[in-house]
Amino acid sequence: MIVRVQRLRLMPTFLHPIPKLIPQCIHFRRQYASNATIPPPTPFVPDVQTFLTLIGRGLSKHASKIPSWEALFTLKSHDLRALGIDPARNRRYLLQCRQKFREGRFGIGGDLQEVVNGVAELRVVEKLIPQDPAVPARIATATTSLGARKIVVNVPPDSATPSVPLEEAKPVKHMKVIGAYTIKGPHVQLLKGTRGSAATLAVKDGLWEVKRGRKIDGGERRQAEVRAKRRAEERKTTRV
Q1: What local confidence, expressed as pLDDT, does residue 32 receive?
Q2: Alpha-carbon distance 8 to 10, whole Å?
Q3: Which residues contact 137 (CB under 8 A, 6 or more apart)?
Q4: What's the rounded Cα separation, in Å, for the pair 107 and 55?
Q5: What is the model's pLDDT at position 167?
Q6: Positions of the chain with pLDDT lower than 70, given as ranges
Q7: What is the DSSP string of 89-111?
Q8: Confidence at residue 19, expressed as pLDDT on a 0 to 100 scale
Q9: Is the dihedral of CA 75, 79, 81, 82 positive or negative?
Q10: Are strands 189-190 and 182-184 parallel, antiparallel or unpaired?
Q11: Helix (H, G, I), strand (E, B) or coil at 60
Q12: What is the pLDDT of residue 41?
């Protein structure tokens, strides 16, 4: 007698039964996820008003409509619409900037720790670089010591050195040293009498703004039509 062995066939994953979730569990999960993704304020961005001022596009006028920092990072698009934040492109832009801040992708000055009344002071200091025996040491120059490099750091007001040990000081992003000791970076104001070695960076409207594109000759859809009409008008004027 011949016995045939039947092979078991696996059921496709899309035919598997979907487990039913309890509504209370779904609500708790959503509430926990929303609370867990609220980033803490930073010294440079301490409140809602400052955040909306930095991202620009006139959103600072809506600061009074958002009651708290937690609300800023938990309100949905329809909630912002109910608060009167229009048009829709401004709401989308606000949500995009909010997500960047949540992920730690700050604009200029977002990594500063010594900030007083929205103003941070920057200084040029020399920091020794840990030497690797396999790599030759940096050559000393007329403006830099042996084995060191100049960086721009954030310092307390009216101080020439950072509040942390110089070995632990981190360079400020988007800033660099030009020449011997001149600070170079966007939106910085050099302090008088320091020969460029000290500067300030202040919170101002649109400091982190992502500029919108401009439509040239009606944009991509109408560009050919607009330019054809313009050429036709130019031909008419030349004939006359």
Answers
A1: 44
A2: 6
A3: 131, 146, 147
A4: 9
A5: 84
A6: 1-36, 130-147, 240
A7: HHHHHHHHHHHHHHTT---TTTT
A8: 54
A9: negative
A10: unpaired
A11: helix
A12: 95
Task: Give the pLDDT score at 31.
Answer: 46
Q: Kindly list the distances between the CA atom of residue 148 and the CA atoms of 1, 28, 86, 170, in Å, as whole numbers in the listed order.
A: 88, 53, 52, 14
- CA-to-CA dists, residue 166 to 142, 152, 163, 205, angstroms: 21, 12, 9, 32
What type of residue sits at position 225?
Answer: E
Strand-pairing partners, residue 200, are 121, 189
Give the 3-state secondary structure percentages of the chain, helix then strand then coil, rounded to 5.
Answer: 35, 15, 50
159: tokens are 């101080």
Identity at 200, one-letter amino acid code: T
pTM listed for this prediction: 0.71
Structure-token pair, residue 156:
């307390």
**Whats the size of the chain, residue-wise?**
240
Looking at residue 30, its pLDDT comes to 47
